[in-house]
Structure formats: C-alpha cells, structure tokens
C-alpha cells in the first residue's frame, strides 16, 4: 500500500505539471484556481494518508476515501477543458466531497481530536473562499452526507460527542465572519470601480467636444483640398486628412468603450433578448471605422451555421468591435495577416471563432490579457476592452478564451451555453 501510494503521488505530480502546462493561457482565472487547488488535493491526500497512517497514526484513516478524493481532484486538473456548465457541477461535487464531507466524517470518526477539528475548520475556510452559493450548498450537502455515513456505520453516538458539539458554534462563527468579509470585499470593489467609472465618464465627455471640432474642421479642409491645382498634392493631403479622420473615429470608439466600462458596474448585463450572431457581426462590420477598402478586404466571415443566443444586441456588437480593433492593431504591428470570423452554431457548444494571423500573444502574457487595465503590448491600449468582454460574457453564462502562438496567430473562442442558444 505504501509503495502504491508513493507511485500515485509521483504520478499525480507529473499530471499536475502536464495539466498546468497544457492549460496555460487557455483558462480564465477561476478555472486556473480550480486547477491549482485540485493539484494540491491530488498530491496532498496521499501524503496525508502516509502521515496519519504511518508516521503519526490516528484512530481512523481510510485509504478508499483518500483514493476517491484523489480521483476527484485528479479530474479537476483538466478543468481547463470543461465548459462552464460542467465546471460548475464538477465544483459542487468535488467541493462537497473533498472538504465538508471528508473532513467532517474524519473528524467524527476520530472523536473530534484537536488535529481533526483544526483540519475541519481550515477546510471550511478554504470552502468559503469560493462562490457563496456553491460553498453554502456544498457545506450543507457534505456535512449532511458525513452525518448520514456515520449513522449508516451504526455509530450515531459520535454525533452527540461533547467535543463535536463544542465545535458547532465555532464553525458557525467562522462561516459568518468569512461571509461578511466576502460581502465587504465585493462592496469595496464595486465602490472602487464605480469611482473609477465616474472618472472615466468625466474624461470621456470632456474629449467629445475637441474631437467633434477636429472632425468638423477636417471635413472643411477636405472640401478645400478638392480645389487644389496639383493632383499629387491633392492626393497626399487627402491621405493625411483621411488618417486624421480615422484617428478621430478611433478615439470616439475608445470613448464609447470608456463610457460602457464606466457604466457596467451599475448596468444590468444579464441577457434579456435573443441575439443572432450573424446579425451582430453585420452590425459590427457596418459600425467599425475601417481606415480604407484594403483593411476591410482583410476581414472575411465564414457563416457555417448561424445561432441565436440569450444576450443583449448592443453589448454583443461591443464585444465584436473590441475583438476587431485588437485584431487589426495586431496586423498593423506585424505588417502582415488577415482576420477570419467563423460562426459555428452546429456544434454541441455553439461558438464564434475570431482569428487573426498577425503577431499572436506570447505565452507568458496570455493568462493576463483579460485582466482589467492590463494591455499587451504595454502602453498599446487602455486594458479595459477584453476585461469588459469577459465581464459581459460571464453575465450571459458564456465563455471567452484565447489560444495563441507568438508570431503566428491569435484565436479568440466565444462559447455560448447550449441551453440558451439555437441554430438557424
């Protein structure tokens, strides 16, 4: 048994490194957290078994229960390949078993010794760092399951153990404090973003007036240049003025992004209407300020199967405008590449692929690009576009991720829940 568990620990460590490497940059922050905690559980359970079974033996230990925990944690190493629906259900099952059920059961079977009461308390602290709804449901399911398991073993007296009963007020107090801290932290974050949003809104409105003035003057200059004598001079001046107009349109687009990001804190992002992906792409292409016909021709749309998803039409266009802007900026930096948009609603998980064959994203930056105010390359953007896209997609129970190879391509994958999307 000792040799088998040692080999299992080594194999788990290898799977951990492999899973983290393969999933690098392909999972969002929440998924990576699940992978890291699953990796810890995969390695820690065999080691703890050796510790409490061999080094400092306790009254009750169970290799089958440990192996079940290792199996659940090992499955979590591949959470980066789960869609949102499966990830939520995996989390509920894994958390219920590995934290409240396992530690409560072990604490009861060991007559609430100091080691296991402290371990149970630590497990609750870890549990309530997850989403409050999932943590509470997992706590109820896991704790009830542990009590039922003790009853089925015919040891009901363990539930009335004095040491066990003394722990209940402590656990209730710990859960209440953790809940209050989480609520306070969320309120503080929303207040900070609201203040930031107010500042962004003020700056954005202040930029509107000078930009409108520049645009009006450029239109006047275009009419004046049209009367110039030299054809070559006329073309050069018109080209310069068209670039100015493009920058004005670009700045207006950025202001729209700032304003939307500023109001997103207090805005209802939840889905409220059916949206056709093909229609959203058409609206985006009509609104995007392409600099010239050549840039527009670099964008192709492949409509394999249109699909309708639950969202908001305006916000879906905002997401697509952000992705288009980032793709064309990457093409400009690389001096090469094209944009390909694929609508694939016939899959079990309807999705949109937004592909550019420009400069790609370096692997070390890939996990960070959806963070608010993080821009890649540095000083090449506001760092709010992709963060806003992920916030909107999350509100729709959808998912956005990026797969990239540096100096080759970047693929943004937008996946929508099957139960809220229909193909056409």
Summary keywords:
5-stranded mixed beta sheet, 3 domains, alpha+beta, 3-stranded antiparallel beta sheet, 12 helices, 10% strand, 424 residues, Heat Shock Protein 90
Could you explain the architecture of this structure?
The protein has twelve helices and eight strands. The chain has helices spanning 2-22, 29-55, 63-76, 84-109, 114-127, 132-152, 162-225, 231-263, 277-287, 293-297, 313-334, 385-395, and strands at residues 273-276, 299-305, 307-311, 339-344, 351-356, 399-405, 409-415, 422-423. Strand 6 and strand 7 form a beta hairpin. The chain is of the alpha+beta class and 424 residues long. It is elongated, with a radius of gyration of 28 Å. The chain has three domains: 2-182, no CATH class; 191-263; 273-423, 2-Layer Sandwich (Heat Shock Protein 90). The model is unreliable at 8-27 (pLDDT under 50). Helix content is 63%, strand content 10%. It has a five-stranded mixed sheet with strand order 2-4-5-7-6. The longest helix has 64 residues, at 162-225.
